[in-house]
Amino acid sequence: MTARDAGLPDPHPAAGLPARVMIWEVGARDGLQNEPVVLGVEVKAEFLDRLAGAGLRVLEATGFAHPRWVPQLADAAELLGRLTPRDGVRYPVLVPNERGLDRALAVGVTEIAVFASATESFARRNLNRDLDAQFTMFSPVLRRAKASGLRVRGYVSMCFGDPWEGAVPLEQVLGVGGRLLEQGCDQLCLGDTIGVATPGHVVALLDGFTRAGVGVDALAVHFHDTYGQALSNTFAALCAGVSCVDASAGGLGGCPYAESATGNLATEDLVWMLDGLGIEHGVDLDALVRTSVWMADQLGRPSPSRVVRALSDREPHR
Ligand code: MG
What we know:
Layout: E1 22-25, H1 27-33, H2 41-53, E2 58-59, E3 62-63, H3 76-82, E4 93-94, H4 98-106, E5 111-117, H5 120-127, H6 133-147, E6 151-157, H7 170-182, E7 187-191, H8 199-211, E8 219-222, H9 230-239, E9 244-247, H10 267-277, H11 285-299, H12 306-312
Parallel strand pairs: 1-2, 1-9, 3-4, 4-5, 5-6, 6-7, 7-8
Bound molecules: magnesium ion (MG).
The site of magnesium ion has 5 residues, from loops.
């Protein structure tokens, strides 16, 4: 019997939460980009098709980084060409620079994301430029993307801590986020790249954006479960009104440039909590678990998701 058949978890709605959450599924890009195994394009296409079939509606499909730096995503154009268009399903892609934008526009992408850093150290290590210079790099990308009618998300990484700098001042995160919005981003995604956030910190940062005049509708959150806080942090963000949450099917991926980073919040773990809260999300949990079990086979290792492990264990628990 599946969890869904058994009606688990028993829903207990809590006051003050969004009625519906948009899950921004990052497994195919952030997840696979950070897995050591490089999968074939046909496996990735099937993965995305299965995720869409399970009800996910925003699938960050791939990225147009230089193949030398990110060989896992070298087949971006071919992969997008293999996807079956589905009504209501969006396939944003990560675009690091103008060259990446050129490649994305050439294959008809309608939605992109850029990847910014909240800290000087990570800007230098990940983007090879200083904190201010990242905006010079994004400026033509965002200007041309908006002129082409693309929807643009701005990732802000290292919002809650940086492995080289330690604590990250709230004002610094607000500053980076504000500049991305000024440059044309439609949404900011606040990333806890090394997984050190705790719920009070999440509330403080979201309050900071509210005070700066940035509504929660323009914000998304991206948590890592390094210290087991991803769901607690997500709940704090939901309580603050955020209704777009990143997650990675089966908990795929981490961040190779941040040594202490481990897995993304697993989509199944998020779905379980949303089900328990009676929040709509549109995802068929059992179909998603089957997809992650299949993907774990492709990668040759089990999924780190608690929910995947619990639901894929066919022996009854006592
Ligand atoms: Mg991540």
